[in-house]
């Protein structure tokens, strides 16, 4: 007897779901990303106005001033759905594990100078709080945004920021011999050191931003581009003899930044390209939040690098250039 | 340095709650605007005990491993055309009910836990809620991928999100979750985290997954196993939340009690659909609804509420009525769908003689006395070419949105009607439980998008049944009506005939 099932005529009745087929322009095989994303959020016939915000429905396009004919246009070029996201991050995280194991084995952190140690405590460890703030923002867009295409990657991003806050924390624990002392100190710096107060104010200001897409621009373009890049990209000189150690232990962050901006840039580009009105709004938001982020980053850059804010300026230029490449006018 | 090395618990605290801070450039009440209006009092968020200690790196690792295994099974199932190996073609209707009625609620849970994961002031529960938000996204997405292959062959699945927003009976689960989503973050946590995930999950999730196991659906059962460890995290979060609220302030007790009463009853009504699925739709039944209710609510729930009694919490109001209804609810629901088969996106059928005997055995107090005669009469009518359809639009309960077909407690021959007045209008209910819920929040429940009202108001494509079915995107003659004579049945029979032919 051969494998009998193969002799059956297994011609499918349809290739994919109706809503997916309508978007693909016909009944064609769809990808897992498409089936897991397209039209998954409810759009009609809601029952009750939220008690906490009765002026809107829970899912409501009016929660941002930009207008999209279709919120399933800003798709994710990485085509992440839950499985591929987690597998990608688990893979990225293997490098983190190797780096920490290596650093511990070789006593990499013990070998660094007191000066470098101080710089890391002052300039790197407080960043875990900024990651946590970014996590809050991306979670907010997940709950408040419109359409699974935009919101699902936001909860992935929120998970990323929590993960990175934890990587930064592990660097602190490596520095302080797993006692947590350095993390307590870093929190004091975050709360009180003048060099960090601009950044703390910046992120606290984003916490009260109600327009979900403005928040998206503030976080993914301005804060990621100016503040995170300042520390992870433009501050190498600040780590003194610990440059290689820091680069190794924060490799996840550079991988993440490339991965995340592939998506977040394309979302901003698509939304801005929708209409002249969107373009004007997004450009305005970008220029406003980039300016605020630069103002916040300048004293940090000066204190960490002794550069009078030059690297904050470099981050600004890079971000402006990026924004222009997305079609924004700044 | 004299500091001591951190223990696991303190290390985790640094990895999570240590990240948070008291804002000062913006007032905390503006950063967390939604966690006070419900009246819940929290004296000390730091008393929160993390129900599980999972850092993101561990989360990614575990979840990625589970996904690799799950998708290997889903792929193999599709390659081997596993859909031809289930117990009977009727089984696909269980998946239709699941994908149209339950999966969209996984999505709602995903967004709702993001809301709680942003807006609860305490950082501990926020982190746990965020992980649950990720998990719930996993559930909707893996369910779509699991059932995607069935959609290629069976009708009734292709328009699941469109139908979920429109079809009359799907407004039962939809309004349940809309209710939770429009509530404050604490009520959401009690509604979904505690009542749904802890008290009722074994009556929802387990019946579908065991049903899949019993009926040869390896793909869905693998999903079920794979989601088990997520669910156990969700359960520990749910129980931790209720204990925390009750421990924090005595004023919380009456609020929490009101929510427990409300969400138990609302959950019970949604579960009526699961009851019907268990008793009527599984070609090979796992256990009766009544048995499941006894094990998972009467026994397990009883022990749970005994444990919670030390906080002053009593078992949910009307739990006794719900237990009495376990004798009836599946039969009454299946009868509703049989009559309205033309407007349902899954197939119906009458139980055959063997299945009726099984029901008699499982329901010795009620089936032969009240339900068998009706099904036999309908069977007779169908034989005579007069298959019974109910073409009148039913009145719906304002709260649970189920057609008014349930009977009076203690009198299974009289339909139960309740009503109340609000702002000069009369509202109708299927039960005291639903009426109480309305009366506690009339402004909210008066807003309900009631499918039948909406049809009458002309908001569902027109005044005739074909207009409405068109609005539903119902593929008439394929998605709806009896299984016998359906394209599903035809295809299933072809597969079976082919199997016999090639096996010879
Ligand atoms: Fe779930
Ligand atoms: Fe769950
Ligand atoms: Zn009701």
Description:
The complex is a heterodimer of chains A (330) and B (504). With 330 residues, chain A is mostly helical. Chain A is 66% helix and 0% strand. Chain A is globular. The model of chain A has no long low-confidence stretch (mean pLDDT 96). Chain B has 504 residues and is mainly alpha-helical. Chain B has one domain: Ribonucleotide Reductase, subunit A (Orthogonal Bundle). Chain B is 61% helix and 3% strand. In chain B, the strands form 2 sheets. Chain B has a two-stranded antiparallel sheet with strand order 1-2. A two-stranded antiparallel ribbon of chain B has the order 3-4. In chain B, α5 packs parallel to α8, α9 crosses α11 and α10 packs antiparallel against α11. Chain B is globular, with a radius of gyration of 24 Å. At the A-B interface, α2, α3, α5, α6 and α7 of A face α1, α3, α5, α6 and α7 of B.
């Amino acid at each position: 007897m051969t494998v009998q099932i193969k002799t059956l005529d297994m011609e499918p009745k349809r290739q994919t779901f109706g809503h997916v087929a309508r978007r693909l322009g016909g009944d064609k095989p769809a990808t897992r990303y498409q089936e897991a994303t397209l039209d998954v959020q409810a759009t009609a016939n809601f029952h009750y106005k939220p008690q906490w915000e009765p002026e809107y429905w829970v899912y409501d396009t009016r929660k941002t001033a930009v207008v999209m004919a279709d919120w399933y246009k800003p798709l994710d070029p990485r085509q992440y759905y839950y499985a591929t996201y987690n597998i990608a991050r688990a893979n990225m995280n293997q490098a983190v594990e190797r780096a920490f194991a290596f650093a511990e084995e070789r006593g990499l952190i013990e070998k660094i100078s007191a000066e470098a140690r101080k710089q890391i405590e002052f300039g790197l460890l407080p960043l875990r709080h900024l990651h946590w703030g970014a996590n809050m923002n991306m979670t907010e867009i997940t709950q408040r945004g419109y359409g699974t295409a935009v919101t699902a990657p936001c909860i992935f991003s929120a998970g990323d920021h929590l993960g990175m806050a934890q990587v930064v924390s592990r660097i602190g624990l490596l520095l302080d011999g797993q006692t947590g002392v350095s993390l307590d100190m870093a929190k004091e710096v975050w709360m009180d050191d003048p060099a960090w107060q601009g950044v703390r104010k910046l992120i606290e200001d984003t916490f009260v931003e109600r327009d979900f897409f403005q928040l998206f621009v503030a976080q993914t373009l301005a804060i990621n581009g100016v503040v995170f890049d300042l520390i992870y990209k433009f501050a190498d000189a600040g780590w003194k003899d610990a440059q290689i150690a820091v680069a190794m232990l924060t490799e996840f962050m550079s991988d993440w930044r490339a991965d995340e901006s592939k998506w977040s840039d394309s979302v901003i580009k698509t939304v801005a390209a929708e209409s002249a009105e969107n373009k004007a709004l997004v450009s305005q938001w970008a220029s406003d939040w980039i300016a605020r982020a630069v103002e916040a980053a300048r004293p940090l850059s000066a204190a960490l690098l002794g550069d009078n804010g030059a690297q904050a300026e470099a981050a600004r230029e890079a971000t402006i250039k990026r924004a222009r490449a997305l079609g924004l006018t700044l | 340095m004299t500091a001591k090395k951190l223990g696991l618990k303190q290390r985790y605290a640094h990895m999570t709650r240590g990240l948070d801070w008291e804002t000062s450039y913006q007032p905390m009440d503006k950063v967390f605007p939604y966690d006070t209006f419900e009246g819940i009092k929290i004296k000390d968020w730091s008393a929160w005990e993390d129900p599980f200690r999972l850092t993101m790196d561990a989360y990614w690792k575990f979840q990625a491993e589970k996904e690799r295994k799950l998708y290997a099974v889903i792929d193999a199932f599709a390659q081997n055309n596993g859909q031809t190996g289930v117990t009977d073609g009727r089984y696909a209707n269980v998946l239709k009910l699941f994908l149209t009625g339950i999966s969209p609620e996984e999505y709602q849970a995903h967004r709702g836990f993001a809301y709680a994961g942003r807006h609860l002031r305490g950082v501990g529960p926020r982190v746990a809620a965020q992980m649950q938000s990720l998990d719930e996204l996993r559930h909707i997405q893996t369910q779509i991928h699991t059932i995607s292959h069935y959609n290629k062959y069976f009708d009734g699945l292709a328009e699941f999100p469109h139908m979920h927003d429109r079809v009359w009976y799907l407004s039962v689960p939809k309004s349940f979750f809309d209710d939770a989503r429009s509530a404050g973050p604490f009520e959401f946590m009690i509604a979904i985290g505690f009542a749904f995930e802890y008290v009722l999950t074994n009556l929802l999730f387990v019946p579908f997954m065991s049903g899949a196991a019993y009926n040869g659906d390896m793909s869905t059962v693998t999903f079920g196993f794979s989601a088990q460890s997520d669910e156990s995290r969700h359960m520990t979060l749910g129980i931790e939340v209720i204990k925390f609220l009750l421990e924090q302030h005595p004023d919380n007790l009456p609020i929490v009690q009101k929510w427990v009463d409300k969400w138990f009853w609302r959950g019970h009504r949604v579960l009526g659909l699961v009851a019907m699925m268990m008793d009527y739709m599984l070609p090979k039944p796992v256990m009766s609804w009544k048995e499941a209710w006894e094990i998972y609510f009467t026994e397990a729930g009883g022990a749970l509420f005994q444990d919670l009694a030390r906080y002053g919490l009593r078992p949910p109001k009307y739990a006794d009525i719900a237990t009495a209804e376990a004798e009836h609810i599946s039969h009454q629901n299946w009868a509703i769908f049989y009559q309205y088969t033309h407007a349902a996106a899954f197939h119906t059928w009458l139980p055959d003689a063997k299945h009726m005997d099984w029901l008699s055995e499982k329901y010795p107090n009620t089936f032969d006395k009240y339900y068998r005669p009706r099904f036999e009469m309908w069977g007779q009518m169908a034989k005579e070419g007069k298959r019974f359809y109910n073409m009148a639009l039913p009145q719906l309960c304002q709260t649970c949105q189920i057609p008014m077909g349930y009977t009076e407690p203690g009198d299974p021959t009289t339909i139960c009607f309740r009503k109340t007045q609000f702002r000069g209008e009369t509202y109708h209910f299927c039960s005291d439980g639903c009426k109480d819920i309305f009366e506690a929040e009339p402004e909210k429940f008066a807003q309900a998008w009631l499918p039948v009202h909406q049809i009458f108001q002309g908001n569902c494509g027109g005044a005739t049944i074909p207009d409405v079915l068109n609005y539903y995107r119902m593929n008439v003659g394929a998605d709806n009506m009896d299984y016998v004579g359906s394209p599903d049945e035809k295809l299933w029979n072809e597969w079976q005939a082919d199997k016999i032919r090639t096996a010879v």
